Amino acid sequence: MADKKFHILIVDDSKSARELVRSYLSETDIKAAFAENGPQAIKKAKSNPFDLILLDVQLPDINGIEICKILKSDARTSDIPVIFVTVASDKESLIAGFKAGAVDYITKPFQKEELLARINTHLRLKRYMEELIVARKKAEESEKLKMTFLSNMSHEIRTPMNSIIGFAELMGDENLTPEERREFASIIINSGDQLLGIIDDILEVSKEEAGELKLFDQKFSLKKFMGELQRIFANNMKGKPVEVILNIPENAPDMIISDKVRLKQILDNLLSNASKFTHEGSIEMGYKLLRKYNPVLEFYVKDTGIGIPKDKQDTIFERFTQVKENLTQNFTGTGLGLSIVKRLVTFMGGQVSFKSEPEKGSIFTFTLPYKMPEKESVVPSSKIKKKSLLPSDNGWEDKTLLIADDIKQIFAFFRETLKKTGVKMLYAKDGKEALEIYQNHKSEINLGLIDIQMPEINGLEVARAIRKENKTLPLIAQTGLALNIGKDEAKNAGFDDIIYKPIKTDHLCEILKKYLK
Ligand code: ADP
């Protein structure tokens, strides 16, 4: 157990006694120091962090009991356990020794085995005690961090919430100009996205705690993916003199197989930090091939921002950690981002590191092993899918959707989003109603958009019931339960696909186009 050598002090005026202990200890790993009188013992104990003191009671100048009292009353030496060495008959000294703070005694003439056994027991106890103290300190610190986290979180949630509620109310004003209306809507959307980011972070941490992290590999174009990220973040920087630069070498791989969602989460977190902490200059991002065989990519996000103080650099990957000075400057954040980055990168088989110079900027780098697609098929640019748009001018006039959701606003969202397509929508406020509507309109319905969590009969049961008689009707699950319901569970119940709330119009449109043929 001893990773560090134990160091003990033997106090005895008899040279032969000291030599005897020295010879016993020479067979062990324990390092020994010696003192032959009281003042020497006290001086040595104050200047060395001994793990134990073996203290003879009978000393010529100050006796052992007094020395023990002095040691116990000084903060530098009070924690060092003291074992008394005394003659067997001297019961009085024994009691006085324990009263003075000794932890044990041994009688002279001592047996080697007994001496070593007692020393080892107390050294081990001392080590346990030290470990306990460290653990308690850590627990206290983590408790403190959690409290700070909760108060940050409350602030983080309330701020966008205020904007959402406030601007939504303002939008009710009929006298608004179209421009104001657009501006307010954009504030509401941004605040919603901000809230979603916080919720995703919290879910991520819960998933980690539940050991539920899984990777879903898919083939995608990395160049396109990075280009989209660059556009999003460049757009976020509007109003700040910060350029967002994408730097990918010509010969860098493009089509890769990896978990796109996780990669986006990693880069999103790094880029949000870079945008948050950079007031002018640039944010540069990119990747290159680091290893061809068993291929590995190296990504980086570099900024010219405020940097991270040297003394904080060791801890920023820990949960809830934020640089204190940042808090006073009112930067938003939960202190979770980098801990998530580190965990995800590690989970994906890579490593993350950073260099940062206060006032100059930071660069975060991470590696990512990936799989190469079998054959990189070249798609002619004319065939590249354009951003999917909903058919306007009543293109879906002949289609009917069954939409089941216990939250009316969600239905309102579908109704408004899909209005211009002319699609007919049948609305069910719970699972029971969904099945009734299905029974009455089965010949008309072309697709079901079913919420999973509904009162009475939940979405999974609705899908199972419909599947019993109809194997081909496209059924799409929609859920906010990002934590609990996976694609597999939804598929097992009979769903063809799943969309997670909040539902983005683009995604909804892609799914509907795919299944509403
Ligand atoms: P937060 O939600 O606070 O951003 P993170 O875990 O992502 O949490 O980051 C932890 C802390 O590390 C931040 O609060 C900030 O103090 C510091 N930090 C992270 N990235 C940067 C950066 N690019 N520039 C300066 N400081 C950074």
Commentary on this structure:
It is a single chain. Helix content is 45%, strand content 19%. The chain is an alpha/beta fold and 517 residues long. The chain has 4 domains: 7-110, 3-Layer(aba) Sandwich (Rossmann fold); 147-209, Orthogonal Bundle (Helix Hairpins); 218-369, 2-Layer Sandwich (Heat Shock Protein 90); 400-515, Response regulator (Rossmann fold, 3-Layer(aba) Sandwich), CATH 3.40.50. The strands form 4 sheets. Strands 2-1-3-4-5 form a 5-stranded parallel sheet, sandwiched between helices. Strands 7-9-10-12-11 form a 5-stranded mixed sheet. Strand 15 (447-451), helix 13 and strand 16 form a beta-alpha-beta unit. Helix 3 (64-73) runs parallel beside helix 4 and helix 5 (112-170) packs antiparallel against helix 6 (178-209). The longest helix is centred in the N-terminal third of the chain and has 59 residues, at 112-170. The model is unreliable at 376-388 (pLDDT under 50). Adenosine-5'-diphosphate is lined by residues 269, 273-274, 277, 303, 305-308, 316, 321-323, 326, 333-339, 362.
For the structure shown, list the relevant keywords.
single chain; 517 residues; alpha/beta; Helix Hairpins; Heat Shock Protein 90; 4 domains; five-stranded parallel sheet; five-stranded mixed sheet; binds adenosine-5'-diphosphate
Any idea of the CATH class of the largest domain? Alpha Beta
Please mark out the parts with pLDDT under 50 across 5 or more consecutive residues, or reply none.
Answer: 376-388
Which percent band covers the strand fraction? 15-25%
Give the CATH topology of the largest domain.
Heat Shock Protein 90
Number of strands: 17
Instruction: Give the name of the CATH architecture of the largest domain.
Output: 2-Layer Sandwich
